[in-house]
């Protein structure tokens, strides 16, 4: 070998050696995950006479989950990465992160406060270019929501008088799977609506946990509507169904490689302990009557919020209508979630929803909800996903559940017509529109009147909203299937409430109205 080549090789080798001693990559902390790091290149760059930086270029490979032993056809995911670099101070790093889809991931100097890389720092998928001014940097696909945080929130919730905690089972590695039950125990359970919520079957889906945490915080809060919900509902909530996957930094599986989201139709020998624990608890809780609602909380790579709405052909027209009612209610002011973001699929028995469908058919509305990781409503010019706007979305989720179940609270009341005057009304063809209750009424005669009443309403000022029933179809205009503010009503004293309106007030189709007390 020519001498010159040997010395060049030696130089390259020495450079690499120096690089590794300069920046060290590791994942020896909770939820840490990374496969390999390869040095690509390095060069010393002088910015000014007193300032120079080393430009260090690395190829970073995120780690694939183990091969799924139950569904060998499922390709393992490597979406999640979370690593620490030390020795970064003053260096400019080029990281080319492979195997994952994240755009504008996050970094932190302390492992607690995270911020997104800017557009300039992350000019295209996977590529990060940044000069760091601290010696330690954490980089992650999304702000980690760890098992430790879950346990500390759980302990906080369990201290509340209307929350009880219970371990419903253990993971493969023996970690607890915890459930909280939230209800006002001074009210008998027999008339309460039953709501089951679980989350985090997929460990990489951190935004789902931030969303669910905010939703639980609201359910257990002193918000008057939450107080009413606890009187009229029992919530069974399992926030972390895959503790091993989350602590081990996996993407979509448990530590054994099994995607427990699609493990619900397997024989016992191939059913994971996490799914067995959930099934056993659900069996026990539904032995008297089914759940009214089941929410399965996820995050998706698509840049929009969605529900996975089960098609009418795999369920029924009325089930589709009720799913779209819940979905439309969750859209709130149509800021973070819009009608065109809805997703549809056939109900499948390998999922929790399919397992519930096979047992209870349409008596339980069981559905998966997805939050994005990056931005909302396919609009990069809008808000980027953060714990703060996930908390706003959680508020929309909370009120969607409240309204969907037509909780008869003191401050937020949904009424269907008590009577329709004259013979000028027709019933809307069943399930053609998205309405509350059993039907909606239609009249072409603008003088036809509808009367709404309630035996007891507290005195005060109320905002009055009209449900603007739109089509029961895969998409619909933004201004329908929505509460529309129609005015204010003043209830002079505690007692009977009556309100009459002409058909023309409702554009000819009358369904529900809602009163929201002004505070
Ligand atoms: Zn998921």
Report on this model:
It is a single chain. The protein contains nine helices and 27 strands. The chain is α+β, with helices and mostly antiparallel strands. It has three domains: 19-140, Sandwich (Immunoglobulin-like); 147-404, Zn peptidases (Aminopeptidase); 412-517, Galactose-binding domain-like (Jelly Rolls). The strands form six sheets. It has an eight-stranded mixed sheet, sandwiched between helices. A five-stranded antiparallel sheet has the order 1-4-9-6-7. Strand 10 (163-170) and strand 11 form a beta hairpin. The radius of gyration is 27 Å and the shape is globular. The chain binds zinc ion. Zinc ion is lined by residues 202, 205, 261, 298.
What attributes characterize this protein structure?
519 residues, alpha+beta, Immunoglobulin-like, Aminopeptidase, Jelly Rolls, 3 domains, eight-stranded mixed sheet, five-stranded antiparallel sheet, 9 helices, 31% strand, globular, disordered N terminus, binds zinc ion
Tell me the name of the CATH homologous superfamily of the largest domain. Zn peptidases
Level-1 CATH class name of the largest domain: Alpha Beta
Shape: globular
Largest sheet: 8 strands, mixed
List unreliable stretches of 5+ residues.
Answer: 1-21
Q: Per CATH, what is the topology of the largest domain?
A: Aminopeptidase
Bound molecules: zinc ion
Q: How many helical stretches?
A: 9
